[in-house]
Amino acid sequence: METSNWQEQKKKNIKNLAIWTVGWVLTMALVTFGPKFIWEGNQLLTYLAFFLNLGLGVGMIFANRNHINGLDELDKKITFDAMAIALGVGVIGGLSFSVMDITNMIGFDAEISFLVILISITYLIAMVVGKFRYK
Amino acid sequence: MKNRVKVLRAEHNITQADLANSVQVSRQTINAIEKEKFDPSLDLAFKLSKFFSKSIEEIFEYHNK
């Protein structure tokens, strides 16, 4: 009975995280493209979309924390290792990228989206490596 | 840390999945413990101890790395 509850709670946490993430991604698209393509610069709607996106982002953070707390100890270790590597690469890579922009070592601006992509890819690779390591 | 989880599991004639369900972890966690790639927490060690009705020292043997 207890076992079943543990697994059901894990599935519920994953589903909950997926819902918050989809909501956050959709409202991010809304706040990015809405002012130009839907409500043509209406500031009130832009503010509403922005705060809706921000609220869903906060919800997603807590849903992610609940998801991680619900993992079993090996999955937690793999996840924490991957997060540590992603954070390190994000800080070091992000600052190095910024310095390259400031010193004109690169011919384009260091956009925040590059940093997000770098962290995401690093996290995914670290998760896969971790899964293989303990296979 | 060395352990006798695989031997004890075989003696009880249960699968990794059965043991994993009983102590509320994933099958991969049991597999990693049996292969001595992953050392369990004290909480999980106690659960395994209770499941096999053995003391922790009878299941796990500490080796200083």
TrEMBL record, chain A:
<keyword id="KW-1133">Transmembrane helix</keyword>
<feature type="transmembrane region" description="Helical">
    <location>
        <begin position="112"/>
        <end position="130"/>
    </location>
</feature>
<feature type="transmembrane region" description="Helical">
    <location>
        <begin position="44"/>
        <end position="63"/>
    </location>
</feature>
<protein>
    <submittedName>
        <fullName>Uncharacterized protein</fullName>
    </submittedName>
</protein>
<keyword id="KW-0812">Transmembrane</keyword>
<keyword id="KW-0472">Membrane</keyword>
<feature type="transmembrane region" description="Helical">
    <location>
        <begin position="17"/>
        <end position="38"/>
    </location>
</feature>
<feature type="transmembrane region" description="Helical">
    <location>
        <begin position="84"/>
        <end position="106"/>
    </location>
</feature>
From TrEMBL, chain B:
<dbReference type="GO" id="GO:0003677">
    <property type="term" value="F:DNA binding"/>
</dbReference>
<keyword id="KW-0238">DNA-binding</keyword>
<dbReference type="Pfam" id="PF01381">
    <property type="entry name" value="HTH_3"/>
</dbReference>
<protein>
    <submittedName>
        <fullName>Putative transcriptional regulator</fullName>
    </submittedName>
</protein>
<dbReference type="InterPro" id="IPR001387">
    <property type="entry name" value="Cro/C1-type_HTH"/>
</dbReference>
<dbReference type="InterPro" id="IPR010982">
    <property type="entry name" value="Lambda_DNA-bd_dom_sf"/>
</dbReference>
<feature type="domain" description="HTH cro/C1-type">
    <location>
        <begin position="5"/>
        <end position="59"/>
    </location>
</feature>
